[in-house]
Amino acid sequence: MSARWPKLWRRAAFPMPAPGPRIRPRHGPPRENRPVDAEMLAQMGCALRLSPTPPPDKTRAELADMMARREDIKAMMRAENNRLKQARLACVTYGEK
Fold first, then answer.
1. Number of structural domains, the chain?
2. What is the full DSSP assignment across the chain?
3. Which end of the chain is more exposed for a tag (fewer CB within 10 A), N or C?
4. pLDDT by residue (tens digit) across 20-41?
């Protein structure tokens, strides 16, 4: 096997992209397209007759906060139970059967 074989295989497996406009996926669309996108979205909103979503009422916001806190506590309890199962010291595993 020659030293050129890996290079030839790589070129066959991963061909170079065709010349043409390049897209910058990490940086998003070029800045000059953003006003066009905003205008298009505004026209779509008018065509679909969308109404703005009202903010959640106080009760629902409080409920969402409590549910998020509950999920945090459940995750902490799961983590502590997993740690307890791995504990080796008798003072930590006291009460375990």
1. 1
2. --THHHHHHHHHHSPPPPSS----TTT-S-GGGHHHHHHHHHHHHHHHT--PPPPPPHHHHHHHHHHHHHHHHHHHHHHHHHHHHH---TTTSTT--
3. C
4. 666 555 555 556 666 677 888 8
